[in-house]
Write a structure and sequence with these properties.
The chain has 19 helices and seven strands. It is an alpha/beta fold and 494 residues long.
């Protein structure tokens, strides 16, 4: 880049239509692979076929592990290595003229972020190396002690800056506390925004609970009504669900590519609403890249700043971070965050189904033998059912067995009952004639009391054999009582 001839490019005032990092043909490019997914909802099979190969290097490094820390450091794409090499190759090939390629990449970086967050122009996006750097730039626009309202749920990079500014007397800080369940209520935020409030700092997603703050537009409307501005932290929401900074009318937004945009550390940004790009808002966090013509090295007094968001640039930027973030941003743009969010919204139901399946498989055999044993078990069950059916048909068609009725039950006393009957008969025969029991009593009462089960079965199976004193009882105890009563009556009659 040759100093004095550098002029602002008019194309940087609007979102570019094509990313210079995109492959024009590239069958294996990010855009072509995402296009192969089709227009319908994402499926696991399609994602595994077309998108997973974009992460082959990291997947090969840990094939047995499932990476769940994308909320901290996103998984890198294979293309990131090539992108970083391209940024370095410009340095090797052209030395000082590498700034031409680097500045073009900065414009592409800003364009991709503008598309992801719904910014009206890429010049509204100012590259930063951290979200805290963006917060400091906003705080340093205040010439006096500003009253700031924030929640206790802000991430450390913002929370530590706010508390240190308050300790030094640079700001008057008021915190909104969480409820007992750890969640923040939008109503509490609205109540905290009172007259003389200058800035409201709020995260769209609370980092330690995952709570999504609702009614951001109501918070912005309330702040604007009392003359305050709103800084929205979208670090934990950008790339997860659709973010539209223009629709909610926030004044500032900070975020980065470290997490769900898979761009690694150092690739962050500050967003400014177009109403603050008319030159009326100045910050102390500036550098020589914020000058109107940074490579001309002119020093007018007062300094002449660049137009739009370029006036918030600082000193020599970390250019490789823009290349490092290229692949992840391209993937997020190509996938369309709204489709990603629709897929994620069904994740709890899919997780519940998988949990149920795991519980059902907990006590099963290992995978290698389970299917074989299941098939064998089914065959054995069918065989057992068939055998039971054949035995039942055989019993129904066969003639009654000796000593059993048509229903298969016994009609004759068993061996134990027969022995008891013989013993009673012999005892009666050995007595004197006056002591002998009549046959009718012996057959009825005594047999009913000794051969209970056989006597009941006989009276049921052959009612004609039941004599006058034989009683068909409902239970063995009743039969014994009936037998003893018959014997007592006979003895009294004698």
């Amino acid at each position: 880049m040759s100093g004095a001839n550098v002029k602002p490019d008019d194309s940087r005032t609007a979102v570019a239509k094509r990313d210079p990092g995109e492959s024009e043909s590239g069958d294996g490019s990010i855009e072509s692979r995402v296009a192969a997914l089709g227009d319908g909802p994402f499926t696991e099979a399609a994602l595994a076929t077309h998108v997973a190969p974009l992460f082959s290097r990291s997947l090969r490094a840990s094939p047995e592990r499932i990476y769940l820390a994308n909320h901290s450091l996103g998984r890198p794409l294979d293309a990131m290595d090539d992108d970083v090499r391209a940024g370095l190759a410009a340095w090797y090939a052209t030395m000082g003229d590498a700034w031409d390629a680097w500045m073009a990449e900065m414009d592409a970086y800003r364009t991709r972020l503008a598309r992801l967050m719904g910014a009206p122009a890429c010049t509204c996006v100012v590259p930063k190396t951290s979200a805290g750097q963006g917060l400091r730039a906003v705080l340093n626009t205040c010439d006096s002690c500003a009253r700031v309202v924030a929640t206790r749920g802000e991430f450390d990079s913002l929370d530590v800056i706010l508390r240190e500014y308050a300790r030094r007397g640079r700001i008057d800080l008021a915190f909104v506390e969480a409820h007992a369940d750890g969640r923040f209520a939008t109503g509490d935020l609205l109540d905290a925004i009172v007259e003389r409030t200058d800035l409201v700092v709020v995260a769209e997603v609370i980092f330690n609970t995952g709570q999504r703050i609702e009614r951001i537009d109501a918070i912005v409307e309330r702040a604007h009504r009392v003359g305050a501005r709103v800084l929205l932290d979208v670090y934990h929401s950008l790339g997860v669900f659709p973010v539209d900074v223009a629709a909610v009318d926030v004044d500032f937004a900070v975020g980065g590519s470290y997490k769900y945009l898979r761009g690694g550390p150092g690739a962050c940004f500050l967003y400014l609403h177009p109403r603050h790009l008319d030159g009326s808002l100045r910050t102390l966090d500036i550098g020589w890249f914020a000058k109107r013509e940074p490579f001309s090295y002119r020093r007018p007094d007062p300094p002449e700043f660049a137009a739009g968001g370029d006036a918030f640039l600082e000193s020599t930027p970390a250019v490789i971070a823009w290349y490092q973030a290229r692949a992840g941003q391209r993937l997020a743009v190509a996938l369309d965050v709204s489709r990603v969010f629709a897929r994620a919204a069904t994740a709890p139901r899919r997780t519940a189904r998988r949990a149920r399946r795991r519980r059902q498989r907990r006590h099963r055999r290992p995978w290698g033998v389970r299917d074989r044993h299941a098939r064998t078990g089914r065959r054995m069950a069918r065989s057992a059912r068939g055998a039971r059916h054949r035995r039942r048909r055989a019993r129904e068609s066969a003639p009654p067995l000796p000593g059993r009725g048509d229903d298969g039950r016994r009609t004759r006393p068993g061996r134990r009952s027969a022995r008891r009957d013989r013993a009673l008969t012999q005892a009666s025969a050995s007595r004197s004639p006056r002591q002998q029991l009549p046959t009718t009593v012996l057959d009825s009462g005594c047999r009913a009391s000794t051969g209970l089960r056989s006597g009941i079965h006989r009276s049921r199976a052959d009612p004609d054999r039941s004599s006058g004193q034989t009683r068909a009882t409902a239970s063995p105890a009743a039969a014994r009582r009936a037998g003893r009563a018959d014997c007592a009556r006979y003895a009294a009659s004698r």
